[in-house]
Design goal:
Blueprint: H1 24-38, E1 44-53, H2 59-74, E2 78-84, H3 85-88, H4 91-102, H5 113-127, E3 130-136, H6 147-159, E4 169-177, H7 181-186, H8 189-195, E5 198-202, H9 207-221, H10 229-242, H11 247-263, H12 271-281, H13 289-294, H14 297-313, E6 318-319, H15 320-334, H16 341-355, E7 359-364, E8 372-377, H17 381-396
């Protein structure tokens, strides 16, 4: 069988794709605004943009894609420096990293904040007329005892050009954080006004947005026809509901699903490979036998019906109607009186709540004619099935 993953690098966190599904509008807006700022013929100036939003909402990849867009326009006339402040943790380390990216030959030790800034601006001006600095996770500079130093550095950075005679030189920053708390706690009005001229909030991804991202990444990374839209939808829904819409986790799970399928010598990625990836990523609590036993005999039979329906259809989701066919047969097998449809629905929702993320019950097509209940399970089905049968047999003996 051929390889499933043909371009593994496109699923790396460091990969910068040509397109940003669901973020193209804000990408184009930022690229245009900074490009206009950098396109001034003479003079000097500073512009600061702040992007904030929850983990995995696309802040870093948006800023780096905008940087690539600008590099394609300005070429050697632009220097781009990227620093993750969470890894640096100290103001002098941030400044040293910026200096090193402008020129590795520049000194990176023994300098004061002002000396670093002077070196950064003079060296950047000598090589290019434009400088873009991306300060990722900038809020981490304000967690410990660096807060005052960090605030002073941002003020000096944003006002430095006002104190020099450098001409035809423009500096822009894109700062990134999860919240805006540090802006009001640590930065006085003068610093906020000089360092941040515009803010952009990125809301967390929903299942529809994640599906678009996963479809695009799948076309880049996998052999054509390797994974169905149904499986991608299952993965997107899981991440939206159980991992706070974190696109990084979604892409990690996509990669892991492909690796599992290849390891098993399969020619496509199936829902069970995604369930195995979820288990390996440890996003769902391990199966708790006490919790399963606490469901009671009838709910376990219903849960077993869901598992059998998913296994036999080999789908990511099954409808309540499909489950009921298996449920009727299992009730006969275990000598139980089948419950009515409304009771089954109530049982499913109770199971969903009691097992905390292991099963999801969603009404699709809500407020529309022909709506149905879609049921999915987020753990490997074989293991789940064996545990339930083990409990049921124990109760029978």
């Amino acid at each position: 069988m051929g390889k499933i993953i043909v371009a593994p690098e496109t699923l790396d966190h460091s990969y910068i794709p040509e397109k940003l599904p669901t973020r193209e509008k804000v990408r184009n807006e930022l690229s245009y605004k900074i490009s206009q700022f950098f396109s001034k013929v003479s003079g000097r100036g500073f512009r600061g943009i702040h992007i904030w939003g929850s983990v995995g909402s696309g802040k870093t990849i948006l800023s780096r894609r905008v940087a690539e867009d600008l590099k394609s326009v300005f070429g050697r006339r632009l220097i781009v420096c990227y620093v993750n402040c969470r890894f640096s943790r100290r103001v002098y380390r941030v400044l040293a990293q910026i200096t090193a990216q402008i020129s590795p030959s520049l000194p990176q030790r023994g300098l004061s904040k002002d000396e670093f800034l002077e070196l950064i601006f003079l060296a950047a001006k000598e090589q290019a007329q434009r400088l873009l600095i991306i300060l990722d996770e900038i809020d981490s500079l304000f967690w410990g005892d660096e807060g005052e130093k960090a605030a002073d550095m941002l003020y000096s950075l944003s006002r430095y050009l006002e104190r020099t005679s450098l001409d035809n030189f423009y500096v822009a920053t894109i700062s990134i954080s999860r919240t805006q708390d540090f802006l009001h706690k640590w930065l006085d009005p003068a610093t906020r006004a000089s360092f941040i001229h515009e803010t952009k909030f990125l809301d967390k991804y929903g299942s529809k947005e994640l599906l678009e991202i996963l479809k695009y990444r799948a076309t880049l990374a996998f052999r054509e026809g390797t994974i169905s839209e149904d499986s991608l939808s299952f993965l997107a829904s899981f991440v939206a509901n159980q991992a706070y819409g974190n696109a990084r986790i979604a892409i990690d799970l996509l990669r892991l699903s492909g690796e599992i399928a290849e390891h098993l010598n399969e020619d496509s990625i199936k829902p069970e490979h995604i369930r195995l990836a979820i288990k390996e990523y440890a996003l769902i609590p391990a199966l708790d036998m006490e919790k399963l036993m606490g469901l009671g005999r009838h709910k376990l039979i219903l849960l077993l019906a869901v598992i059998l329906a998913l296994k036999n259809t080999d789908k990511s989701y099954v409808t309540r109607t499909t489950v009921q066919r298996y449920y009727q047969d299992l009730c006969i097998e275990y000598g139980e009186e089948p419950r009515k449809t409304t009771q089954i629905w109530r049982y499913l929702k109770e199971i969903e709540h009691e097992l905390g993320g292991i099963i999801e019950v969603v009404v699709s097509g809500k407020n529309q004619r022909g709506r149905s209940t879609r049921i999915s399970i987020n753990v490997p089905l074989d293991i789940f099935e064996k545990n339930i049968i083990k409990i049921l047999r124990k109760w029978e003996s």
